[in-house]
Structures are given as structure tokens and as C-alpha cells.
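Hi U.,

Before I forget, here's the chain from the pilot set. I'm dumping it here mostly so it's searchable later in email.
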Amino acid sequence: MHFFKRFIIWLLMRIIAIAFWIAGWRAEGRLPDVPKMVIIGAPHTSNWDYFAMLAISAQLNVIPATVIKAEAFQTPLGFLLRWAGSIPLDRKNSRNAVDIVAKHIQAAKRIVLAISPEGTRRKTKRWRSGFYHIARKAGVPLVMAAVNYRRKRVTISQPLYPSGDIVADMQIIRTFYESANPLGRYHENFGEIKVIEEVRAQHEQHQPKEQPVLETPTT
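Structure:
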């Protein structure tokens, strides 16, 4: 039964992949040969991004899992989400989301988790850093995917193993996306590639340092 379920998903993805292939969509680069990874895709500005992700995933011969609100598993599409290995997230316990997802990855034998770091199709001031902390806690590499709707290409990066220095690692991520030249379907909604930890680090650098108070010796 498990094989049959995965075959159905594979077949659906192949149908989508063929349609996108005919339309000219291609993947540039390869995924690392590891059983588990977190893929971040950007820009995310349209519902079409999800179908592009499925099409490119089929070209790369993987079935991507996603993190989706638990309510979605109660819909008619719930069985497809379960078959794909997607992770339900209870919004009431969203504070523990990183730990929940990281543990799910650790327990899986194989998983390719796809995350949109922007978290929404609307323009944002910065990315959500959960993707980074999930990969670091799970001990898996990050792989960047840059979408270009004009060229109909999705560029895949080399794997990045989070070092724990998120500021330094975000510079590597930024450099990749700048060189990949992404272009969203509605590119005006693509925000700055920055996370809150970088904002805090910059704020701390500009904070005036306290001068030591010299005590006057008493006589």
C-alpha cells in the first residue's frame, strides 16, 4: 500500500513536470547525495510557485515534504499531504515549531523538506529564520533554490551546513541568490534577504559601549 501511495504521488508530479517541461522549465544544478535536507525556495510571490516546485522536484527525482497548518490535513487534500510526508503544524503550538519539525526530520529515514523563508506571497521586510534553525537542530544541510520566471529556470545551490553563526551563513545565502539572479512571478513582492538575527546584530554593533567608571582613590 505504501508503494502504491508513493506511486500515485510520483505519477501526479510527473504529469505536472511534463507540463512544465513542455513550457520550458528546467532545473540548473543537482541536489546533494544525502538522505535528508532542507530546501529553501525564493522568491515566493505566487501560488504558481508550488506547482513549479513540484515540477522541478520531479525532474530532480524527489518528493518534497512541506510544513503545513494542521487544519489542511482535514481537507480532501489531506491524504496527498500525508503521502508526501508533509508535517502538520498546530498554530497554537507554533512557538515550538522549530523543535517539532527538527525532531520529525531526525526521525525520518529520508526527507527533503521544502520551505519558503518568506512565509507568504506578500512582500515582507525580512525572511523568517526558522528554516535555518530547523536545519541546524536536525543536523542536515540547507540547499537554496532560486526561481526565475523569465528564464523558466530554478537554480540549485551547493549544500550549506549551518555553522551556528547565522549572520555569516546568511551572507553565503545572500551571495548565492545575488549570483543566481532570481525573478519572481510578481517580483515587486520579493523582499530583502535578511533575518531578524542580523538586524539585532547590527543594532548591537551601533550601541554605544559603556565606559568604565574610574573610582577616585580615597585618602
